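Database export, one record per block. Field names are fixed; values are copied verbatim from the stored entry.
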Amino acid sequence: MFMAVFLPATSASAATGGCNPHIKVNGWDVGVCISDRNTSAVTADVYLNVVPGPQPSNCRMYIEIWSDAGLEAPRDDGHPCAARSSSYVYTVQGQPARLKIIRCYRGLHAHAFYYVGSTMHIGDSPHFDYGC
């Protein structure tokens, strides 16, 4: 007989992060996420579950990384406003990028928005303290 034993994760081995759903924000259904993926750096992800109607070709989805102190990682390269079930990771110069944890970041979170002639904010991931 097999018996599973579950132990609580320690802070040294547990990844920190999560997602916030933003449903029906101007017709969009988007998950905005941040995680350290159990490393010394954080990454941000956006999951497009529903994008309303066909979007014009100039529609772009962007991700930024903020803390309580302000902008920590500038707007990324941007991503097309594709059909549903697309996911994007924070990208700089065409490559996935991460924010290295080099100090205490209070309230670190991802912020997602799209642009079609003007900026439309989607929302934030959960806020976490990293490196504190």
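Remark 1: The two ends are 43 Å apart (CA to CA).
Remark 2: The mean pLDDT is 83.
End of record.
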